[in-house]
Design goal:
The protein is built from six helices and seven strands. The chain has 234 residues and is α/β, with parallel strands linked by helices. The chain has one domain: 3-Layer(aba) Sandwich (Rossmann fold), CATH 3.40.50.720. The protein has a seven-stranded parallel beta sheet with strand order 3-2-1-4-5-6-7, with helices on both faces. Helix 2 packs parallel to helix 3 and helix 3 runs parallel beside helix 4. The chain is globular, with a radius of gyration of 17 Å. The relative contact order is 0.15.
Length: 234
């Protein structure tokens, strides 16, 4: 699994590829020999120095953007084997009665609707792979919600339900779909917004990336429809 060619010839789409977690995921798949398409609204080819990396700007918040991204991948590489979906957003600080429409709809837009659009576009290609993989980043809050994060928790819970449904609908095709539920991930952005937190209890991006890589590998073929907790030291 750790060999440098464990993902050789596999075409992997990493969404949010230059984000705090996405960058670690992108590097993990490149190190394993995969052909990686890194997508984000703003991403440059120069951000990852590898002949196996291709940057593709995309806006998956709408159906057409998601469809075009998958079509562009298939046009360039002829196939798609793995979807590593790290895109997501967070908003908190308000009770349910204080949460405005824009915040609630925004959380569902980035965490659920974007996932739906991407899955709908990508699943046919992933089925053709014969051993396709979908790994999406959920959140501990999806199953363990706290106060004042209702919109975020609900959107992530719905996303996990969507992934489990995909797993059931495609279980005889060789395609697996799983979600990872991390606690707070130790990224520069999270440190900026929570400077007084105990960083040592947070989840390391590399740990999540390694798990995504394992789920995408042949070794992970028997794991399907799971929501895997990765809570760190909290």
């Amino acid at each position: 699994m750790k060999s440098e060619d464990s993902m050789k010839d596999r075409v992997v789409l990493v969404t949010g590829a230059n984000g705090g977690l996405g960058a670690s995921v992108t590097r993990a798949f490149l190190d394993a020999g995969a052909i990686v398409v890194g997508s984000s609204r703003k991403i440059e080819q120069s951000e990852f120095i590898s002949g196996n990396f291709t940057a593709m700007r995309a806006d998956i918040s709408n159906a057409e953007g998601a469809r075009k991204l998958i079509a562009d991948i298939l046009s360039k590489f002829g196939k798609l084997d793995v979807l590593a979906h790290t895109v997501g957003g967070f908003a908190g600080g308000s009770t349910i009665t204080e949460t405005d429409d824009a915040t609630f709809l925004g959380m569902f837009g980035v965490n659920l609707y974007a996932t739906f659009y991407l899955l709908r576009a990508a699943i046919p290609a992933l089925r053709k792979s014969g051993n396709g993989r979908i790994i999406a980043i959920g959140s501990r809050a999806a199953v363990d919600p706290g106060p004042k994060v209702g919109a975020y928790s609900a959107s992530k819970a719905a996303m996990v339900s969507l992934i489990k449904t995909v797993a059931l609908e495609n279980q005889n095709s060789g395609l697996t779909a799983n979600a990872i539920l991390p606690g707070t991930i130790d990224t520069a952005e999270n440190r900026k917004y929570m400077p007084n937190a105990d960083f040592w209890t947070w989840v390391q991006p590399g740990s999540v990336a390694s798990l995504m890589l394992w789920l995408a590998s042949e070794d992970g073929k028997d794991v399907n429809g799971s929501a895997i907790p990765v809570y760190g030291g909290s």
